[in-house]
Amino acid sequence: MKKAFYLTALLGLLFSCSQTDEPEVMTQDEPTAETRGLFTKNVVIEWNEEGQELDGFGIAEADCAADIFTHPKRKEVMDLLFGKDGLNISMLRGEIFPHYWMKEGDTSFDTDVRTDMPLGDPYFQQAETNELKRRGQLWVTQQAKQLYHVDKLFFSTWSPPAWMKQDGYITEDNFASHGSLKKEYYQMFADYLVQFVQAYKEAGMDIYAISPVNEPNYEANWNSCKWSPEQLADFIANYMGPTFEKQAVNPQIIFGELAQWSTLVLGTFNVVSAKKYAENVMEANPDVLKYADIAAGHGYNIPRIPYEFPIVPYDKAVDQGLKVWLTEISSALDNYDGSMDNAIHWAEVFHKYLTNAHVNAVCWWTGARYTDTNESLIKLEQGNFQIPKRFYTYGNYTRYVKVGSKQIRTDKPISTTGKLLLTAFKNNQEYVMVAVNKSKEPITTTIQVKGGRPIGELKAYITDAEQNWKESTITKDESNMYPITVPAMSVVTYVGSVQ
Predict the structure, then answer these.
(1) Quick check: helix, strand or coil at residue 244?
(2) What is the dihedral of CA 130, 375, 315, 232, to 10 degrees?
(3) Distance CA 120, CA 199 (A)
(4) What's the rounded Cα separation, in Å, for the pair 201 and 469?
(5) What is the pLDDT of residues 221-230, one digit of tens each?
(6) What is the pLDDT of residues 395-418, one digit of tens each?
(7) Cβ-based burial of 103 (10 A; exposed 0-12, middle 13-18, buried ≥19)
(8) Residue 428 backbone zone (phi > 0: left; psi -120 to 50: alpha; other: beta)
(9) Which is nearest to 2 in space by CA: 228, 227, 175, 229?
(10) Arithmetic mean of pLDDT over the chain
(11) Has residue 144 got a pLDDT over 80?
(12) What is the dihedral of CA 35, 41, 42, 46, to 10 degrees?
């Protein structure tokens, strides 16, 4: 998303009588005892039953990176987002702005400008809005890479430069809005993406992945561009992919990124979904699969509609060897809520995307910005900031589940169904399990590791209404299992090892 105050209009217009979207059935969050062995007295971690590999957890900054760049406590904010004692974020999503090249013949991506000026520098009072956005993104990306060694930098394109588009225009707020890319500019736009990658590389920042479109089914009043599945398939298969290959740039190619993850059928109306859109792109031109690497979607629900979009796997994409990323999710319309109830809700959402949809990556919109909604993990204010509880429950995943970990199956006592959510990963000899207790009562059980011999003590990191990542140590009992108590309304991350 671009601006929260436009989101209502966006989501309202996403309803369509699409002939390509078919009804989908939601994957059960609580699998049956017969299929998951829930007739057990304790939590069982199935060491040898592996799922997807994790690429990481991320945040987006895009055009709000300037909010951090200009904030008097920007170092503290960056530490909270990327530092080892903060969220330890491993992925950063930015924007390939359309205003790098405002007119045909421009070639600069402004990666050679100064970003080390003090906050009192006159620049901050004189800078034009778009220039400040570009420099703010450059500063945040440089800091993330150089100081915090962020593993994956990826960028999405909300719109090509307006002069490349059919029926596109510049709004009063200087957004490149509406329209679609003219066919005669497909090659130039592919070159634009290549040169963006090269400019960032020359500035010391290798880009991990590029998305040529963001929410391509909607012409918004912010930077936006309409792409049909057929148009995007043509562009990736015949222009972007071959140009990347010819120019020897190697970012992975992302496609999809519609606002809704999957199809929700309401009477005779369907909502266009990222899942179906990605499938339509692959079907429109199979050569897309020669170049594309990642099918992606966003996780927004529609305001005032009492139904949630099913959090399901992108099975056809996975069958073609693609990874699946959740590249954007937040709650951009609700009034700010920093409570534990809100944090438990989001911990459950993360659990569902990892466990039901089997995504390889989760990226929150946004890390830090000025806002009165729930779209940010840090709520910036003039001279200060607030940290909502969802920051910490996101951290129960981001701080402890390492890049490259593989998800492993967990079973739990049937008595905890509907109360206790479990997500587990392994990395070498280490395992991490995130437990979400949705109930108002503590849950006491034991952890057994099946397929591996647990060694040493088990570490627990508790987040509840009073604590944030509070560390404790658990020793094994005489049955070689770890007795645990998951506090009421809490998220607890357990970290252990096997031999």
Answers:
(1) helix
(2) -20
(3) 28
(4) 36
(5) 899 999 999 9
(6) 999 999 999 999 999 999 888 888
(7) exposed
(8) left
(9) 175
(10) 92
(11) yes
(12) -30
Q: Minimal CA–CA distance to 96: which of 148, 164, 13? A: 164
Nearest C-alpha neighbor of 102 from the set 146, 73, 134: 134
In this structure, which amino acid lies at residue 263? T
- This prediction has a pTM of 0.93
Q: What percent of the chain has pLDDT over 70?
A: 91
Q: Distance between the two ends of the chain, CA-based, in angstroms?
A: 45
Closest Cα partner for 377 from 56, 80, 94, 63? 80
H-assigned helices in 13-106:
33-36, 65-69, 74-82
Residue type, position 19, single letter: Q
Exposure string for 451-481, b = 16+ CB within 10 A, e = fewer = ebebeeebbbbbbbeeeebeeeebebeeeeb
What three-state secondary structure class fits 431? strand
pLDDT band at 333 (very low <50, low <70, confident <90, very high): confident
Q: By three-state DSSP, how is residue 45 classified?
A: strand
On the 0-12 / 13-18 / 19+ scale of CB atoms within 10 A, 116 is exposed
| Burial state string for 321-339 with b = 16 or more CB within 10 A and e = fewer than 16 | ebbbbbbbbbbbbeebeee
Residue (of 267, 307, 283) closest to 17 by Cα position: 267
Q: What is the DSSP letter of 53?
A: E
